[in-house]
Amino acid sequence: MRRDHLRTALATVCLSGTLEDKLVAASDAGFDGVEIFEPDLVAAPMRPGDVRVRCADLGLSVDLYQPFRDLDSNDPDRFAANLRRAERKFDVMAELGADTVLVCSSVSPDAVTDDDRLAEQLATLAERAGRRGMRIAYEALAWGAHVNTYEHSWDVVARADHPALGLCLDSFHILSRGSDPAPIAEIPGEKLFFLQLADAPHLSMDVLQWSRHHRLFPGQGAFDLPAFLRPVLAAGYAGPLSLEVFNDVFRQADPVPTAVDARRSLLALAEATALADAAPTGAADAAPTGAAGAGAALAGVAPTGAGLGAARRAVVVDPVAAPAPPLAGHAFVELTAEPTEADQLAEVLDSLGFVRTGRHRTKPVERWEQGRARVLINAGSRGGAAALGALAVESADPPAAARRAQRLLAPLLPRERGPAEADLAAVGAPDGTPLFFCRTGASGPGGWSSDFVPTGETAGDGFGITGIDHVGLSEPFDHFDEAALFYRSVLGLTPVSAGEFAAPFGLIRGRALTDDARTVRLALTVARLRRGDWAPAVADPQYVAFATDDVLATARAARAAGAPLLAIPDNYYDDLGSRLELPPDRLAAYRELGVLHTVDHPDGGVYLQVGTELLGGRLFLLLVQRVDGYDGYGWADAPVRMAAHRRNRLARATG
Amino acid sequence: MRRDHLRTALATVCLSGTLEDKLVAASDAGFDGVEIFEPDLVAAPMRPGDVRVRCADLGLSVDLYQPFRDLDSNDPDRFAANLRRAERKFDVMAELGADTVLVCSSVSPDAVTDDDRLAEQLATLAERAGRRGMRIAYEALAWGAHVNTYEHSWDVVARADHPALGLCLDSFHILSRGSDPAPIAEIPGEKLFFLQLADAPHLSMDVLQWSRHHRLFPGQGAFDLPAFLRPVLAAGYAGPLSLEVFNDVFRQADPVPTAVDARRSLLALAEATALADAAPTGAADAAPTGAAGAGAALAGVAPTGAGLGAARRAVVVDPVAAPAPPLAGHAFVELTAEPTEADQLAEVLDSLGFVRTGRHRTKPVERWEQGRARVLINAGSRGGAAALGALAVESADPPAAARRAQRLLAPLLPRERGPAEADLAAVGAPDGTPLFFCRTGASGPGGWSSDFVPTGETAGDGFGITGIDHVGLSEPFDHFDEAALFYRSVLGLTPVSAGEFAAPFGLIRGRALTDDARTVRLALTVARLRRGDWAPAVADPQYVAFATDDVLATARAARAAGAPLLAIPDNYYDDLGSRLELPPDRLAAYRELGVLHTVDHPDGGVYLQVGTELLGGRLFLLLVQRVDGYDGYGWADAPVRMAAHRRNRLARATG
């Protein structure tokens, strides 16, 4: 039996707001169920029965009630009190319509340390739960006093051997300890009562703090979630894929987009798991075959331990799971401006060696080209400074790419937002930027570019710009991890660089993504803390980086043509000269042209960049040359560039 | 010789902005000197000579150039290259007018691990520095590859035995490792070339990350800085007290108030060190004597290793250092509102059992009283919701307290801002809230209250409110640590509670301060991340907590008088009943009156609180009862109250 639906659930603790806000957001994002986090219920005016009704109205099942803490005790009186407490929670669950409660391993000093006694206490609780048609999902907290590995929790559950007692597996607790998830495949599927998924960055800190503040949705962190999920599904787990993510940013952000981000992460995870699963058969490259194999491989089994509450639905992945169609580069970048500023942008492109090759038939849009770099200037912007208006990538199969993006919850944008009349599908990135899918090599007649009337001028080699190296996107604070996952999943990119640098107005996190062939590169940045009033707009810049094989020649030609190249302080070159043995004439050329010379590590090549001055509140253009295989983004020198742009802005403000 | 001036310096890395912004802020705050952080200079358009001139214009000396990294090397070629690099930096220092450079212990894999060879390499560098009249201050990074304790760095410096080589001591690197600072007193003072001070909270994380993101100014964290500073001064250290604080918030905040906060921290540290130093003589309680003793104890000695660059000035503390005059409680709290809202506030105070005892002679201000709780309602607010307008404490010596506050850089507020005509001194807290010093017991005739015309009504026991328990202040994001230090130093309070709780709109940090007798308590809170658009104003509430010995009786009387008590969900009481064995009638009374019952730990007593509904955008009043010595602030239940206020606000918006 094949189902086309992946059951997904979300713990209410993932989201900001009150319980009512959270349920609406989870429903809007298409989740099938929720875990009710007890503090959310305790603070809610809705009685548990009202919550059940509300969830039903919203199409949500209540898949888990959590957490029940510190059940077991060496003190018989305390254990008895804990059982009474549990009965009250069973009352709540009965009203809620929840049949499974998460019991986490004790962190109390009186935690039972004899495994047989612990199993006995868990079985006692399970017996009481079972009588009421409920189940206990026992979870090992990574910082549990006695039980803190999934292997240990399974040992205790197996000892207890009670049909109403099973495991809750949480990827964070397991992967944060470096445990191998592969043996999970050996656990009987009917004893896997619940699965909580969370990713996280690698951090060297107290695991409790790491867990409580820095969890991420799958695909946003450093954990190998597909490798975790595979053995769980292989074991026969049949419950929902549920997210339990404690994250300081998500707890403070609008819950509606966060819930969409959350569900996208599960869809992408299921797809990645299916594809990875199919990969060993050699089918991963052939999308339909690979997907079918994956769908079959991931079809869950019905629980054999049924009869405990509602029947479990099988876990299946989207049967059309397929890799993103291959990319072949940036088709174009659109810059938007008011008419006067658009003229200035055109002048700058001209001074960088670009040629105006077309004018749109009906819109105030011009097409400029040099090498394979294509830039549209859209003079139809009303108000606001010049800015990055849209991204466009060349895709081997634009319709498939757009359908896939929609399946990954990317909003399809209405046609009128597109810069071209051709049938271009565009979806909205998390910050609202349109992202177009264009057919590979279709920038000529018949493709997206055919809506432009040729000017008669043709783009030649110009000043040596060969194409778009990457686009630099400063993301809104609440949407950084969301954006990284969006581009990763929707475009099929791979995260290649993550870093942090100290800029003049505070620390900045960076994350870059690219396709394997490095034809599409995106460099995302965000302030480590949301900015207040002090930082100027230029603290969060946007830019288009153009590739050249000889940045000195390109910059020199641009300078001669009047390009507004950004001046870099002499102090930078004094320091550079003290750090590296550079030929004096090269250093002099750098100093003259404002070249930043970045070396991330001795064998990692060199990155040379020359920026323009600001072309809007926070927009600039960049010339970059990658030497000896440099694969980063020059973040070490970004603070120097940013300080120069700050002066640039001050000069504009007073000039 | 007595000097009345403490030499203070600030590393530019402490502040946000470009080098120019930082120098101005440091000068405005009254610093005597700066450490120039190399990346700030490298990104600056000012040449080093321009920086020297600019600093001189601003009254700043350039006390240190930093850091020079990874000097030593097992590879002779690399060491030679590092010496060449150092010579270029000496060139920069000569232009800057800096005679001391910080060389930190190497973190490189090729760091020299033979101490004699390391000493030899340091001496080689020092010889070159000495020839140019410069000095090398060698610092052990806590994460240095080979040298990572101050003891080890001193051992190497002693081996090198070169007059131009000494130590830089950094309190973070020393205290973060748990090293004992006492033996520093045995190091010859002339070998202590520089002192960098930083505090930090206790965090269980990688020390490099801890250092780079979470340092604080002295008095804001958990380190015992007076105990660190004493042996340094005892050794004869004669340079400035300099701050090197890497902090994510400070790096993003307006540098002007941050620099003031920084300098205040040094003034308070010097005072605390002097007082602590004087304490064993029994003089700490007698301010003038104690201060004189302290000043003498801390008077630094002139460097015996002079001749290396500019002469060092002696370190002395403010000779009038004295403890804050004792407090005797909150004199009053002022609430401000527009006239209509002021009438509503008056109604609420009336319904809580307060009596209007006076009207101001000339201003639209009323005095309300119950027990020792005094509230002013100021109807002169123009625009904005009802809010906390001012705090006032009873001080044994208001003029001395105000002078002391000014010495600690608190701005004296113009008289017209005061609610009373009496000669009340007020200073501005970091968020701008006026803070008044009133004479203890002077609320009657002749004191601050004498500007009020008695209404003829007298305050009795009312409904059992005995006084102001505490004031809850939600601080602006950039000013939380600053506010904590401000109240701590200016009022002479002690931090007693620090915590964090998960509120509906994100995590909140809390910090409480009190005088030893618990007569003045302040509970400061702040969102862990700066809020965006999603969170409502009520996410950051202000409140006045009134003490009662029987919160049930007080709340019942208030309820009967029509007080708008905040409704707490039944779910809360179901949960409370499951957790604690409470008599059914007590639980029923809690449920009826909206009492929150908080237990932080089994032996810590009980906190009972009943809130009012919102009286403005984020203002409410609270009735609290402390049972069995409870000494916290009920943070565990704050999220429930906050969710209830959110509903309250929604109801007001739609009602």
How would you characterize the overall build of this protein?
2 copies of one chain form a homodimer. Chain A is an alpha/beta fold and 655 residues long. Chain A folds into 2 domains: 8-298, TIM Barrel (Alpha-Beta Barrel), CATH 3.20.20; 327-654, 2,3-Dihydroxybiphenyl 1,2-Dioxygenase, domain 1 (Roll). Helix content of chain A is 33%, strand content 23%. In chain A, the strands form 3 sheets. Chain A has an 8-stranded parallel beta barrel with strand order 1-2-3-4-5-6-7-8, surrounded by 6 helices. In chain A, strand 6 (165-170), helix 7 and strand 7 (192-197) form a beta-alpha-beta unit. The first copy, chain A, starts with 7 loop residues before the first strand and ends with a helix. The model of chain A is unreliable at 279-317 (pLDDT under 50). Chains A and B meet through helix 2, helix 4, helix 16 and helix 18 of A and helix 2, helix 4, helix 16 and helix 18 of B.
What features would you highlight for this structure?
homodimer; about 650 residues; alpha/beta; TIM Barrel; 2,3-Dihydroxybiphenyl 1,2-Dioxygenase, domain 1; eight-stranded parallel beta barrel; eight-stranded mixed beta sheet; 24 strands; about 25% strand
Write down how many β-strands of chain A occur, each being a DSSP E stretch of 2 or more residues: 24
Uncertain residue segments of chain A: 279-317
Name the quaternary structure: homodimer
* Percentage of residues in helical conformation of chain A: 25-40%
The computed structural class of chain A is alpha/beta
In the CATH scheme, the class of the largest domain in chain A would be Alpha Beta
Distance between the termini of chain A: 71 Å
Outline of chain A:
elongated
- The CATH superfamily of the largest domain in chain A appears as 2,3-Dihydroxybiphenyl 1,2-Dioxygenase, domain 1
Helical segment count of chain A: 18
Strand order of the largest sheet of chain A: 1-2-3-4-5-6-7-8
| Protein chain pair with the most extensive contact, residues per chain | A-B, 67 and 66 residues
Average pLDDT confidence of chain A is 90
The largest β sheet of chain A comes out as: 8 strands, parallel, barrel
In terms of DSSP E residues, the strand content of chain A is 15-25%
- Shape-level CATH architecture of the largest domain in chain A: Roll
Radius of gyration of chain A: 28 Å
Number of domains of chain A: 2
Fold-level CATH name of the largest domain in chain A: 2,3-Dihydroxybiphenyl 1,2-Dioxygenase, domain 1
